């Protein structure tokens, strides 16, 4: 089983961010971490899982002192698979040497930095709280501490982005001691400062293709629509678990879990979560829901999906896409040849 912990605190709200995060409720941090502990304890006792991977996301986990994570690591220790991948997200402005070292000593063995760009003007435009030099410094600190698995996030498709400017970001990023890159095209989501501001984004599929090809020349091979790794060992096992449709516990305000064909949602409000940390809305997933999700998720990644999921009509449509060079069938598994077309392929096959 996978485990996700959500930290909803941020020093500042990026203009594109639609995640459940708050910049004005820091006085609730300690009470929140206590509620997180209680919810996690209840879930661990209920499900008795073997935790294959742990991912601490946000928000910004590096806004929480490492000492507040210590009780949680003690709690999960008996359930952790040996050599489990343990990832924390971090922002360069708050991922200090002390914080990174203390998280590493707790057992975190993979760190993911919200770098987005090294261009200071672009970072300001996005509402980021760090500058390019701070990002470089944070990554180098992680490597010196001993982190062998380091990811950097990259955002592209922002107004004024060009292939040349994005390549420059990639050149700097790949000169650092990292082995994973997550590259996301800017999206304009409801509830963000950028929503309804079309001028802030450029829609250029060719830029995506060229960016992906350039990452390949740098040794970063695409294994999911937005993720690239230097080796198979550098791939995010936590993300792969989602795409393989493994069960997962989601702990924290706004977190989502999926167990026994039920998806559950915790309240996104921090004060409500602190008051009632084990309260959820439940969604029962039908066989058709599960089938659709397995196909959609599989086609966006190297995971693919089983041929046995398709009925006769769907299989005939899938064969058409094989003939058109958009799908491939290997060892009874279907795979997309272009992840950018994964959603369209899935909808054609199953509708």
UniProtKB/TrEMBL annotation:
Keyword flag Repeat: no
Xref: Gene3D superfamilies: tm_1862 like domain
Any single GO BP term: porphyrin-containing compound biosynthetic process
One Pfam family hit: Radical_SAM
GO CC, any one term: cytoplasm
Main location: cytoplasm
Keywords tagged on the record: 4Fe-4S, Chaperone, Cytoplasm, Heme, Iron, Iron-sulfur, Metal-binding, S-adenosyl-L-methionine
Positions of the Radical SAM core domain: 1-221
Subcellular location: Cytoplasm
Gene Ontology molecular function, alphabetical: 4 iron, 4 sulfur cluster binding; coproporphyrinogen oxidase activity; metal ion binding
Protein family membership: Belongs to the anaerobic coproporphyrinogen-III oxidase family. HemW subfamily.
Function field: Probably acts as a heme chaperone, transferring heme to an unknown acceptor. Binds one molecule of heme per monomer, possibly covalently. Binds 1 [4Fe-4S] cluster. The cluster is coordinated with 3 cysteines and an exchangeable S-adenosyl-L-methionine.
Protein name: Heme chaperone HemW
């Amino acid at each position: 089983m996978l485990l996700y912990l959500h930290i909803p605190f941020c020093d500042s709200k990026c203009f594109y961010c639609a995640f459940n995060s708050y910049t004005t409720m820091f006085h609730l941090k300690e009470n929140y971490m206590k509620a997180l502990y209680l919810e996690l304890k209840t879930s661990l006792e209920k499900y008795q899982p073997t935790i294959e991977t742990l991912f601490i996301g946000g928000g910004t986990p590096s806004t929480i002192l490492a000492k507040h994570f210590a009780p949680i690591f003690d709690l999960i220790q008996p359930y952790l698979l040996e050599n489990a991948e343990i990832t924390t997200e971090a922002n360069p402005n708050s991922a200090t040497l002390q914080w990174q070292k203390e998280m590493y000593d707790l057992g975190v063995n993979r760190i993911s930095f919200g770098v987005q760009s090294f261009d200071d003007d672009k970072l300001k435009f996005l509402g980021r709280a760090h500058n390019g030099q701070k990002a470089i410094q944070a990554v180098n600190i992680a490597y010196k501490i001993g982190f062998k698995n380091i990811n950097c996030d990259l955002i592209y498709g922002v107004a004024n982005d060009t292939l040349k400017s994005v390549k420059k970001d990639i050149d700097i990023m790949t000169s650092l001691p990292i082995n994973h890159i997550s590259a996301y095209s800017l999206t304009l989501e409801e509830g963000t400062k950028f929503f309804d501001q079309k001028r802030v984004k450029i829609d250029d599929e060719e830029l995506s293709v060229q960016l992906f090809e350039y990452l390949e020349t740098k040794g970063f091979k695409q294994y999911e629509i937005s993720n690239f790794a230097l080796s198979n060992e550098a791939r995010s096992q936590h993300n792969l678990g989602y795409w393989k449709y493994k069960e997962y516990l989601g702990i924290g305000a706004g977190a989502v879990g999926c167990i026994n064909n039920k998806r559950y949602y915790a309240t996104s409000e921090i004060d409500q979560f602190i008051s009632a940390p084990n309260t959820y809305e439940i969604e029962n997933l039908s066989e058709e829901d599960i089938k659709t999700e397995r196909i959609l998720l599989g086609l966006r990644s190297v995971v693919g999906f089983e041929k046995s999921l398709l009925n006769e009509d769907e299989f005939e449509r899938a064969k058409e896409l094989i003939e058109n060079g958009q799908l491939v069938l290997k060892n009874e598994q279907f795979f997309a040849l272009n992840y950018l077309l994964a959603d369209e392929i899935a909808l054609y096959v199953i509708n």
